[in-house]
Amino acid sequence: MRALRACTLNPARRMRLWDRGLIKPGCVADIVLTESLDDFCAKLVLVDGVIVAKNGRMMPNAIAPAAIAQANEALGAFAKTVHLTPQQASDFVISLPNKVTNSATVKIRVIDCGPSTQTRLGYASVPLRDGVLQLSDDMAFICVVDRHEQHGGRAFGVVRGLGLRRGAFASSVAHDSHNLCVIGHSPAEMALAANAVIASDGGIAVVDGAQVLAHMALPIAGLLSGQPIAETAAESRAVYVAFNQLGLVHSHWLMRISTFTLPVSSGLRITDLGLVDANAREIVPLVVSSQ
Fold this sequence. Notes:
Elements: H1 2-7, H2 9-14, E1 31-34, E2 42-47, E3 50-54, E4 57-58, H3 65-76, E5 105-113, E6 119-129, E7 132-133, E8 139-145, E9 154-160, E10 168-171, E11 180-184, H4 187-199, E12 203-208, E13 211-217, H5 229-245, H6 253-258, E14 268-271, E15 274-277, E16 282-284, E17 287-290
Parallel strand pairs: 5-9
Antiparallel strand pairs: 1-2, 2-3, 3-4, 5-6, 5-17, 6-7, 8-9, 8-11, 10-11, 10-12, 12-13, 14-15, 15-16
């Protein structure tokens, strides 16, 4: 019963929706009937007192055509929200300050991955070759690109301990601003992943070399799929499997990849404006010093 309250009464009270969350006179008749609380298989589903599903299947004409048309029209306002042109590999090359490009080694700030979705501010001494950072195997580049046409921001950082051994991925799900976040080992792979997401007007794409391993299109605000649940679930599963193939193994993979950009959280984060020391509440540079 605690689990049921957690997804019915509690959120209704938290959002001050006093007309739902309970089955009682005066409340909205959104009801699920089940034969057992052990497996909780929904036998009958009512929305506003009308039976819309029975034994796992939606009832014919459960939703009025006018309501569907109205919903589709409303969703149209949230389409085409990725305002980016195709990216080039050069767009994902970090431009270091001139004073350090001839150095042998630079000390940089890194986003250290902690448990769950936590991050910590870390440091690393990284060698340079022809002015390019030579990351160790446990590191990857991260880039956040403004996709909302606000100011064209683009920022770079380095992630350590994510588990991504090779390849790249891009996602338009990136709390809270949901800009385009790209993480990878090479500019070419990062561009390929980014372009897959841009082409589908939002989503998540996982790349290995020149191959897109998995791609989940999220064209509604760059956050939601317009496909049936079964198809979306299959795409989500494919993304999960692809991440595993590249070494990123996490029980809550979506929250892991989508919160590097959450500057209100703790540790070191990144937005399209730059690296953010969340504890100090300030934007900080990638490079600390050079040798």
